[in-house]
Each structure stands twice: as C-alpha cells, then as structure tokens.
Automatic annotation (TrEMBL):
It holds the Pfam family Usp. Residues 14-154 form the UspA domain. This is UspA domain-containing protein. Belongs to the universal stress protein A family. It comes from Lapidilactobacillus concavus DSM 17758. Signal peptide: none annotated.
Amino acid sequence: MKDLEDYHVSTMHYSRIMIAVDDDDFISSQRAFDYACTVAKIYNIPLAVAMILETGDLNIFQSLSPDVLTKQRAAIAKDLNTYCDKAREFGVLDIQPFLGEGVPSHEIVDKIIPSFRPDLLVIGSETKMGRRKTIGTHAAYMARYAPCSVIIVRSDAQISRMISYFEE
C-alpha cells in the first residue's frame, strides 16, 4: 500500500482520436461519433474517421461485379465525407478520413490504427436481433487487440432498454 500512498493523480490527455463508424448502423455510431467529436474539439486534437466496406456482406455475384463494387465504394466514400463534414461543422479542426475494405475489426486494428496511431479508439456498440453484424459486434475484438485505449459508447436506445430491464 506504500505505492498507493505515494501516488498522486495526474492529468490524462489524449493526443489523437479515432472513431470507427458503421455505414449500415447509424444508431450505434451516432452517440460514439458525438463523443469523439466532442473530445477532439475540446482538446483541439486530430480526429480520424474510419469506415469499412464489409466485402463479406456481398454475395459472390456482387463481389465479382466491378459495377457493384464501384457503386458500394462510392456510396461509403460519400458517407465518410459526410461524417467528416459534420465534424468540421461541429468545430473539429483536424479530420482525417480512412476507408478500408474487409472485416471491420481486422481492418481497423491491423491497418488503420497503425497508419494513424491514435491513443484512443471510440466505437459504438449495438446490435439488433435478426440483423447482420454491425460494427458494434466487432467492439470486443477491437477492445482486446487495439494497441490503444478503447471506449465503447452505448446508444441512447440501448441505455433506455438497459434501464427498463433493471427497473422490472
């Protein structure tokens, strides 16, 4: 306990933040994006916005069709630019977009994080029954394997469900 007695709380400050947003699940990404933008704006630090084209969601015919892939890439690039524009409008000064293809958790941990080198990764986490996997289902992998701190932000809807569950 001697170490604890000698310990003094010090200020902790992040210098680079990355937000991973899911093009197919705005609900899980919205609150996390708000959080990441707020921290980036308050501390005036760079913000990376990462989106992944989940090629595993395409059937074999879609994945072999150059037109389908081109349209998918254009759509996700447009949405990524919209997120970056929203962050700028909010007051974040330094924004870097990252677009990857493949399995979101692996693309983010293995490729995008080493490229941007954030000290904080922010992700949303929510899945809905009957839906395909969303970025939220990759949260556990990223929290475990990311070489930086990870904050998982729950959506308002999920928080409301949890509160009502505990009130029963």
